[in-house]
Amino acid sequence: MAKSDKINFSTPSGFxxxxxxxxxxxxxxxxxxxxxxxxxxxxxxxxxxxxxxxVLQAKGNQGDNIIYGLNPILPPNRQAEKDKAGETGSEAxxxxxxxxxxxxxxxxxxxxxxxxxxxxxxxxxxFRGERAKDGRFRQFRQCDIDVVGRRELSxxxxxxxxxxxxxxxxxxxxxxxLIRINNRKILTGFxxxxxxxxxxxxxxxxxxxxxxxxxxxxxxxxxxxxxxxVEQTTKNHRLYSY
Length: 242
Known about the structure:
Blueprint: H1 20-39, E1 43-44, E2 50-52, H2 53-56, E3 69-70, H3 82-85, E4 93-95, H4 100-109, E5 118-122, E6 125-127, E7 139-141, E8 144-148, H5 156-171, H6 184-193, H7 198-209, H8 211-214, H9 216-225, H10 230-241
Parallel strand pairs: 1-5
Antiparallel strand pairs: 2-4, 3-4, 5-8, 6-7
Helix pairs in contact: 1-5, 6-7, 9-10
């Protein structure tokens, strides 16, 4: 490289870099979260930053996420190896964009080595090739917990989740917060408890899910078409909001 050449040392857009004080704060937060996760019996795992592309795209798991693919960059004196280095099909690789898809691959790879229900936590960095802006990065850390069962899994594990969130937020003194729960099993049980016929429950859940889009008055109208009137409608709205 000639002496006159200039190198841009700024970080690529969307890829954060921490000063020592910021890194200490991150470490404190991660340690706090880790302690709470482990107090509930979750065990740590780590999956590779890189997965096979076919795994990340399996059955539409990619969603709307833009994946960063990996291709080898050869030095000038090794360009003859370019064709051999090119990876296609099952050998194509990319950076993981979340923890869920790699967890599924991890379970498949270690199925006979794990005890179920398997409760794990993971605090790895993930990558998404989306537009970077304030509060939205292309590289960020996810603190993720999941419980994987075989055949049936107790709803008690679902009940643990808001308790874990509350304990973490209290521990880091985040201030006042509200946890919203949107779970079709809870809504199904609620509709049954107020006497809604089972064949109408699915359509009622769809109506409740549209509350923020169409407003409370329209939701009441739609529920009344299903035979659910004022008293039940009010209860449904309270369940959804609080």
